[in-house]
Amino acid sequence: MLETIKEQIKSTLENFYQLKYEQEIGIVVEEPKNPELGDISIPIFSVVKAMRRPLPEVVSEAKEEILKASSAITSVSNVGGFINVCIDKKLLAKDVLVKAIELDSNYGASSIGVGKRVTLDYSSPNIAKSFSIGHLRSTMIGNSLRLILDKCGFETYSINYLGDWGTQFGKMIVAYKKWGNYEDICKDPITQLTNLYVRFHEEAKEHPQLEDEAREAFRKMELKDAEYLELWRWIREESLKESAQIYDLLGIKFDSYNGEAFYNDKMDPVVKELADKNLLKEDQGAQIVDLGETMPPALIKRKDGGSLYITRDLAAVFYRKQEYQFDHILYVVGNEQKLHFTQLKCVLQKMGYDFADAIEHVNFGLYLTDGKKMSTRKGGVVKLYDVLMKAIQLAYELVAVKNPELENKEEVAKAVGIAAIVFADLKNHRSLDIEFNLEQAVKFEGQTGPYLQYTSVRIASILKNKGFDVHKSKIDVFEKPHYFDLIKQISLFKSIIERAALERAPSIIARYLLNLAQSFNKFYSLEKINVEEETTRNANFALAKATRIVLNEGLRLLGIQYVNEM
Length: 566
Description:
The protein is α/β, with parallel strands linked by helices. It has helices at residues 2-21, 45-51, 55-69, 89-103, 135-151, 167-179, 182-187, 189-206, 209-222, 226-250, 268-276, 309-324, 338-350, 384-402, 409-426, 438-441, 449-463, 481-491, 493-503, 507-526, 534-557, and strands at residues 40-43, 73-79, 82-87, 117-121, 155-159, 280-283, 286-289, 298-301, 328-334, 359-364, 367-369, 372-373, 434-435. α6 packs across α8 and α14 packs across α15.
């Protein structure tokens, strides 16, 4: 309701200035930094400047119009260049609680995406390498964004664009033929293959001709050499088994696992179209698209005829446009790929396709260890599976101490441990680098996923076997600051979700949930919930119930499971 009133005020004032003065003036409606001034604040200086009229006249006129915006507005005042609005707290509280409880998990749903399709390209691990902690960012940001966009009415399609093709396989094949052992690889495929990959790069420092051998091996793959393709298929199959374990633990599913190899037969038409449109140029034997003086050229084909990432991504864009008819196509990929996606859009624009503007690079920072980027080439990778298992074990130890009688300790520990890792990532804005520290990631106090889960469990305990009627609540209590602060937090849920969707930022929801949990725990510390007086008890239980609904739904949107006991 609070957000509705804000929109009503904004619309009322903008329409007024348009109709009376034929001026389009954007009105900002916010909350005052000092709650004692009111519930809503409108900076009026921009209106004064646009209309070139004295401040008192503009304020007087605006106050009169604001009072017409909603029957829930009780008073309007001004301090300097701000108009402050007070609303009926009791009316707001009743409206928020009834809606939250009646809608349950549907509370906060939005229609801003109805009729629009979005494809999301995320996770996309490289085959034959361990699923590292570094893949967590793309995986969890992408998964959360999909859930958030679904909540906003978008029709979404999730794509795991597997790194199952490319020169790295040439390197792997060369390494296997020189130093590999079939029996050892069968026993522990990923570890052995990763060791071979690391050894290749160490050996290549002393023997640079290995790089040429790798390029030649990959060329044979592209020429469909039977031996090389069979080895590739085996490596791919074994790698996917490890990925499947990770996705099962995280509760993640995809609509498509079409990786780079899927587009092997779809690149030639793209290259031909580029040639037909006179966009291809030869540069030292390679085929490029010139993107002007301010940007490096897009390399379409190497001198030896081998394909490149951008060629494959162009083929993928055309396929996805035909398959999904997307309005937006999101690539949840690291900051370091900014140039690649800029080039991709530019090539599409040069080809004359307006859907180039639908491409969005949802960038994110790195996981660092001791301030340095993790690298599979150097063997400095931290395996995500090991991290998750360690987190679950630590969570189990904590739960066993807190509640030794809990029957489903293993199930709860799994949810808590994964929540600790996932939330430690998503609470940070995606564009930032994160220093990875396992001990810090699995702490169970402070600004953590388990803290949110525990708050939800606390509320579940309060409400256990308790009946209440939200319609028979004593609404006077909601005028108390700690009550109303919690009501305001709950009322913001829909706008928070919409903002997270539009900014492609799950961290907005994560931070909001921390504020919500803190507001509830403050309320809990100041009030006895299960009081004798029935209407007050109904109000308290309704507030607790609404808080848990929002908390649990918010956790779900982050890809985190809530629990009922801990």
